[in-house]
Amino acid sequence: MSDATRLLRDHGVQVTAQRLAVLRAVAAHPHGTADELAETVRSEIGAISRQAVYDALGMLAAKGIIRRIQPAGSPARYEDRVGDNHHHLICRACGKTVDVDCAVGDTPCLKAADDSGYRIDEAEVIYWGTCPDCLAAASDPAGDSRPVRRAAKT
């Protein structure tokens, strides 16, 4: 039995070829959008509807098998790094997204000034900046130095 099969079964999820392909796509392309992941799944197993991929991603995220993040102004992205409350760094110019370990090391990483009576168990932090590739391109005298929002890289 593969690790992915065991993971699905451990979470009470029926194992299907489509769900296994979606899991493999998320592992191969962390921070991928549903459309990007659907393209990867199609290249692996052939025909699968976009809705089937969306459904699988939603169910896998609801079960805690994958993590869904949705940065402001961006489509939802998915990753298989779960359970450690890590954060993300996103390039404003190209959209490249990378993981950033927790700032403090303990969940929830940040202590709210006023918890309003909530028991906080997670903090979601997104750092925004410019990646090294875009910084290098911006300093190239032959290139245009203005950051341009492009399709996100993962």
Main traits of this protein?
5 helices, disordered C terminus, 3-stranded mixed beta sheet, single chain, 6 strands, 3-stranded antiparallel beta sheet, 154 residues, Dna Ligase, domain 1, 2 domains, Arc Repressor Mutant, subunit A, 34% helix, alpha+beta
Q: Specify the CATH class of the largest domain.
A: Mainly Alpha
CATH topology of the largest domain: the name is Arc Repressor Mutant, subunit A
Helix content: 25-40%
Mean pLDDT: 86
Strand content: 5-15%
Task: Give the tally of β-strands.
Answer: 6
Which structural class best describes the helix and strand composition? alpha+beta
> What sequence of helices (H) and strands (E) makes up the elements?
HHEHHEEEEEH
3D shape: flat
CATH architecture of the largest domain: Orthogonal Bundle
Low confidence ranges? 145-154
Number of helices: 5
Cα-atom radius of gyration:
18 Å
Number of domains: 2
Query: Could you name the CATH homologous superfamily of the largest domain?
Result: Winged helix-like DNA-binding domain superfamily/Winged helix DNA-binding domain
Biggest beta sheet attributes: 3 strands, antiparallel
Distance between the termini: 29 Å
Q: How would you characterize this protein structure?
A:
With 154 residues, the protein is of the alpha+beta class. It has two domains: 3-69, Winged helix-like DNA-binding domain superfamily/Winged helix DNA-binding domain (Arc Repressor Mutant, subunit A), CATH 1.10.10; 83-139, Dna Ligase, domain 1, CATH 3.30.1490.190. The chain has five helices and six strands. The longest helix has 13 residues, at 50-62.
